[in-house]
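Schema walk-through. Below, the input block comes first and the output block second. Nothing else is stored per chain. Lengths vary across the set, and this one has 445 residues.
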Amino acid sequence: MAAPEEQELTQEQTEKLLQFQDLTGIESMDQCRHTLEQHNWNIEAAVQDRLNEQEGVPSVFNPPPSRPLQVNTADHRIYSYVVSRPQPRGLLGWGYYLIMLPFRFTYYTILDIFRFALRFIRPDPRSRVTDPVGDIVSFMHSFEEKYGRAHPVFYQGTYSQALNDAKRELRFLLVYLHGDDHQDSDEFCRNTLCAPEVISLINSRMLFWACSTNKPEGYRVSQALRENTYPFLAMIMLKDRRMTVVGRLEGLIQPDDLINQLTFIMDANQTYLVSERLEREERNQTQVLRQQQDEAYLASLRADQEKERKKREERERKRRKEEEVQQQKLAEERRRQNLQEEKERKLECLPPEPSPDDPESVKIIFKLPNDSRVERRFHFSQSLTVIHDFLFSLKESPEKFQIEANFPRRVLPCVPSEKWPNPPTLQEAGLSHTEVLFVQDLTDE
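--- output ---
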């Protein structure tokens, strides 16, 4: 049995599929599509579930295991800059360091053992991300309460949204992971991150996303970027059509040093953004050109369709005109045929013509509209209708006519009317033995 064909993706679904692949690093397009379909094409929910899975939390859909997600961190050309803590100076410094060393070792060892054991008793609450935006807003409020409002502009959205915006806008994305328990975090935030020159550089040249690793959203990003110490900064950009970490800065960095390192990383990778901008402009121009060609084609197609429509209408008009003419011809033919049949019927119904010797006969000479003359005899006792029927039966007589007498000039009532329901006889009409009557054509009236 053949496998069913996959449903064709819409343009919006295709864009989400490519975004999800860039954000997660999954090479298999089928797996990306399967994951998105499980989440009803909600890319945010799909990325969050994928991050949770990488942190050991099983997916609600139990998908098969795949390669680690998020941005590309396997590039060995990533620039890494680590600031080590300063070594003790002098006899007093070394003495204090050696005295505190056992206590620090014991403290951190016990703390790590406690945390490790706690995982078996109670799962880490940071492993389940339920409100990523709430985690970001909560960190922003706590940062401003502790260090003030003079700081770089925080990106108010999830990590995946920041990646997507940086990719769309072709900008650098600076990620800061805040370790609340680390001894250098306060000094870094207060003296370095809130320095005016650092704020100016970050706000003008990159997006800035930050979160505490004590928050579920920050913790899962920490698991993806795998920082070694705090403070931790990662520079991410679109490189080779994938969001890639191009720089890692770890440790307590001074403001001038941070500016130099960020500037160096951006200058070293600016060509990739320039190249991507050129490719994107070329794609946009190609798309615009294709759209213009499609519009021109559609315009030509509509013009052709309009011409064809007008031709069809003209053909239909001519056909209807021909049918109308043909119907008029048939109607005229039927009318003439009916008229001829009526003439023949009238002719058959005419009484016989009286003989010239009959003293009650009337000789009538009719002058027709075509100047021809017709002569016939009638009986005084006959109705004027007989005269009308006789003239009507003649081929040369008009369809509608009236009969007029000259002395005195009058119209003879040969057909029934309101005044003469029963037309009079020839004698009652005052006709003499010999009469000349005129036939007036009424056909056009």
